[in-house]
Amino acid sequence: MRGAGASPRCYTRRRFLPLPPPRVPSGERPGGAAETAGRRSGDLNPYEILLLLDPDVPEEREIAVVARVRELVERGGGTWLAHEPWGRRKLAYEIRHKGEGIYHLVTFDATAETLEEVSRVLKIADEVLRFMAVRRIESKPADADRQPEYAVANARSPEEGE
Fold this sequence. Notes:
Elements: E1 45-53, H1 59-75, E2 79-95, E3 98-110, H2 112-124, E4 128-135, H3 149-154
Antiparallel strand pairs: 1-3, 1-4, 2-3
C-alpha cells in the first residue's frame, strides 16, 4: 500500500530518539539561572525575619540568637536596621509541646546568599521553634484625607436625608 510518493508513517523510530544537547558558546553554562534585576549577586535586598523562640530558654540565650543573626548579616556585607522584641505570646497550636513562644522581629538589608546562611543557622539552633524570612516591601503611607472610592458610593445622597 505504501508507494514511492507516500509520506512516512506517523510513528517512526526516529521521532522518539533523544535530541542532542544544544551547543553552548565557551564560558557559558547551560541551564543557569537567568540574570534578572532582582537576582544579581551582590545586591542588597530588604528582608525581615520573624523569630519564634522557645519560652523555656533564658533571656541571655534569646539575646545570643538575635546577636548571632546580626553578626551573620553584618559579616555578609548587609546592614542591620532594627530589632523589635514582641515578647511572649500564646500560640494557636502547640509546637514541640509548647503553648507559648517568644517573638522577635528583625529587619535588615542583605544579599540572598547571606539570607541563606542566616536561615541555615536558624534551622540548626535549638532555641528557635520557627522562623519566617520574607522580603520586606517598602510601602508609601496612605493619604489620610482621601477616602477610598467605595466610600463615596456608599454615602447617602442629599435627597435620602438622614
